[in-house]
Amino acid sequence: MMLADAKTGELQVKLKSKLKSYCGEEISVEIRDSNLILVMPASTKRNFELPVGLYQVSALLEDGKRTKMVVHVTSGQIISVELKPNLPAQPRPSREDSDFHSIAQLRQSQSFGTGAALLNTSSDVAVYTVDSHWIVRHSKKITQVPVAILRFGQSLIQVSLPISAGDHHFSVTCHVKRHVNLELKPPAVNISNLRGIASAMERMLESGLFEPATQLASHAMIVLLDKYRDPTGAVIAALILYKVGKLESQRELLELMVHRFDWLPDSKILLAFLLARKSEELDRALTLACQASTQRILFTETFSILLDLLRYWPEDSESSLRNESLSRLGRRAPLVDWRSTYLCERLPEDHDAEAPAAACT
User: How many distinct helices (H) and strands (E) make up the chain?
Assistant: First the structure.
């Protein structure tokens, strides 16, 4: 097919991405010329008639990065390109239930060679072991944020796990890298790629890409609560909206999360943050905040929000409940690794890492 104007060519852009199917929103494409000057800003079009020349085509996809491709538009020709996310390599979980084991079963066969050792988990999770990762899912109804205890050398680490509460075991997993030096960095814990929308927001949050993350998060909460049943993913959306000052618009969904998923204190913390700004809601805000302080928290940032909220409470009054909550958080704060996305604490060397699972929470 030839174009009428011989000084132009047609560029057709295809996107290999699931983000539209997750949230129903078209993904925007940007086009820059050979001097990287923006000639087509944030367009949902897929066909472009452009002057002959070199162009950079890009889109933000679920890998949390701007995927780019350089194309040469030639006279009177149709040039077709496909952009696809460069997702980090992750082994897929086994489809066999029998390949997922409790921590007691793993201890019998686990090697304590190089890399980290998995010493304990909450009792409501099961683990599939591959050479590079532990893949974790829930094994029964979740009643608390799950945790794992890892050892590397003399370091003993407890970390919250972002598995979720959906009905399908294989779509609610998280991956924990096995070969990480925990003495130098926090555990590498990530939502599994199978949870496309939640893992995309996790990568955008960790990369600091707040503009595209906000666009995705504003639609994601309702999708993750009603369609995919992924409350830990919904908390990521809420946390992104908190960071850009747009959480108030999702208050009804936040209330729904608190009602449906009492085991997930992060939603209570974010709701308490909203309520504490209104004098008539202070009592309820304090109740939610103090309840959350007694539970295992998922995100490091929500732990920090709760600590600051209670420390700088807007009403100057003595409250034994608030003081107890602050004391509880204050004892844990020095142990927190603030670099970690998910709440991670270094435990004392004399901690009994193989105690009953309740001791992990």
Answer: 10, 15
Position 148 in a domain: yes
Both 312 and 253 in one domain: the answer is yes
Give the count of alpha carbons within 13 A of 52, CB side only.
9
Residue 67's CATH number: 2.60.40.10
pLDDT of residue 112: 46
Query: Which residues of the chain, if any, have pLDDT below 50?
Result: 1-4, 112-113, 356-361
Buried/exposed 137-168: b ≥16 CB within 10 Å, e otherwise: bbbeebebbbbbbbbbeeebbbbbbbbbbbee
Of 83, 118, 139, which residue is a domain's last? Answer: 83
Nearest residue to 66 via CA among 192, 246, 208, 189: 208
| C-alpha to C-alpha distance for 176 and 118, rounded to whole angstroms | 10
Count of structural domains within the chain: 3
- Closest to 107 in 3D by CA, of 90, 120, 122: 120
Please tell me the predicted confidence (pLDDT) of residue 208: 80
Give whole-number Cα distances, 69 to 57, 75, 82, 291, in Å. 5, 19, 9, 50
| Cα 46 to Cα 81: distance, rounded to the nearest angstrom | 10
Tell me which residue range forms the domain holding 109: 97-193
Cα dihedral 19, 60, 28, 222 sign: positive
Three-state SS across 124-165?
A: CEEEEECCCEEEEEECCCCCCCCEEEEEECCEEEEEECCCCC
Please write the tens of the pLDDT for every residue from 92-139: 888 888 889 888 888 755 554 456 889 999 888 899 999 889 999 988
User: Cα(216)–Cα(197) distance, rounded to whole angstroms?
Assistant: 8
Same domain, 221 and 338: yes
Please check whether residue 49 is in contact with residue 3, taking contact to mean a CB–CB distance below 8 angstroms: yes
CA-CA distance, 342 to 300, in Å (whole number)? 5
193, 223, 239: which is the final residue of a domain?
193
Determine the Cα angle at 66 with ends 225 and 16, to 5°.
65
Tokens representing 67? 């995927």
The b/e string for 233-263 (b: 16+ C-beta within 10 A; e otherwise) is bbbbbbbbbbbeeebeebeebbebbbeebeb
